[in-house]
Amino acid sequence: MKLWIRRLAQHSLTCTALLLTAGVILTPAGAAEKPGKGKKGKEEAAATAVATPAPTVVSKPKDTTALVRLIDTEIQKRLAADKIPASPRADDAEFLRRVCLDLTGVIPTPEQAATFLDSKDPQKRAKLIDELLASPLYGRHMADIWSDMLLPRNSDNRRLSAAPMETWLEGHFNKNVPWNQFVTELLTASGPQDKNGAVTFFLANPTADKVTDQVSKLFLGVQLQCAQCHNHPFTGWKQKEYWGMATFFTKVKADKVNAAAKNGVTPGVTEAGQPVRKGLPESALNVPAKFLLAEEAKVSSSEAWRPVVAKWMTSSENPFFARAMANRLWFQMYGRGLVNPVDDMHKDNAPSHPELLQGLTRELVASGFDVKHILRAICNSAAYQRTSKPLAGNESDVVLLSHMSVKALSPEQMYDSLSLVIGLKRNEGAQKTGKGPAQTSRSQFVNFFRTDENPDPTEYQGGIPQALRLMNSAQLNRNAELLSKAIKAGEPAKVIEQLYLGTLSRRPTADEAQKMAEYVAKHDTKTAYQDVLWALINTSEFALER
């Protein structure tokens, strides 16, 4: 599958142009649909793409020079040792689309793409990275990533609104709250959901075992749930270790979401005076609270226990916490952790670049747990800015970072990028379905395109239903905002250029431009442009991040 996705990514759009020229690709369903008349029609025509609020005020970035050097030195050291050549630097178009998707979850506008591609500033890549990290879209993208991980999507949570948690996450990421403070606030959250969105985590994971499963994976990087029922035969995790950690969360009292919704009240979380063991599995052990692979906690029955474990967990001395986040940030940008799987870090699962992971961990702590600092360094490295095109001798490399991995757009990235092209709003078409929260067009799209709970970013998970949805949905093929703006450019060559910039963040090759122009010349102009745009958003190049 990885080889297939790579071939798709490198496949030229010439074949698309040929299909258009031959008239094989017909006008998509709904493409010729016109907005209604009157007030409703004006509102539909005025629907905007992803809103861009005012930039977030941020402090001056820390110097990343030493960390960038460490990243490139350690990667080159492994490549040299294994005699694997490194692919060259990505061109501006490839880098632009990649970094925009990785840091803000959406492709650039055609104006942003043209400005960046035409700029002669030698520092334009570093400046772009800073701009993206300062954008409010950064926090929203990070909220999408972490909301998916923190809140299991199952029938027990069908009435739980994720919006308060998403808002809380977005604000904290945009403010660049230090990661240790971030996690402390999350793990100790109490109160009603409408006052503190962080409690959504405990509402979605209402028992101590479920919280422990999530906390150990996401913040410690270990699959501790494997020891819930017995001592794990391979990793060495003991059942007592699992329940010693789970004990810290047995005082959490989370309201039942379905009951709260039925009674029309806001659910919330409190800290009970005594441990609550109701709802735990039969395998649960009643053991003292104990830090993972460390001593028992000195706690009294009268005090809250979550602050105790949060203080231990987020300490700069904790052997798991910073290392797990450094590895997860690397995974986010490359599609593969230095330790892979990203949440299964143990002594028998060695990192591909031990010194690099150690350096990233050390820098995360030294920077005051500054997440943006680590991301800034990764994006400025030569390794991140390499092309995804393999060379002879590194085609089969998926571990040593000789070339950039190709990643499939997440459902959220796909919807937001389509929104930028078509002109949808994030909260468009909110509908109450069943007894759960209202579903917007975005949430419906994301649910339809989400396949696995923890998908591999380098594997394309979509199938025939998803492909047909993109091709035939009237919503996704209505009169696109990008098309309306592009047509104002006048001459066909300029219109086609705008369509390419607005979808693939690059200008067409000479061959593509010629074939597209030939197609437009032989058909009704507006319909032909609609066909070109439809073809572009249904290519593998649009669906993949190279």
Q: Provide a count of the helices.
A: 26
- The global form is globular
Strand content: under 5%
Q: How far is the N terminus from the C terminus?
A: 15 Å
Q: Tell me the domain tally.
A: 3
Helix content: 40-55%
Biggest β-sheet strands, sense, barrel: 3 strands, antiparallel
Describe it.
With 546 residues, the protein is mainly α. The strands form two sheets. Strands 1-3-2 form a three-stranded antiparallel beta sheet. The chain contains 26 helices and five strands.
Question: What's the short story on this structure?
Answer:
With 546 residues, this protein is mainly alpha-helical. The protein contains 26 helices and five strands.
Please supply descriptive tags for the structure shown above.
single chain, 546 residues, mainly alpha, 3 domains, two-stranded antiparallel ribbon, globular
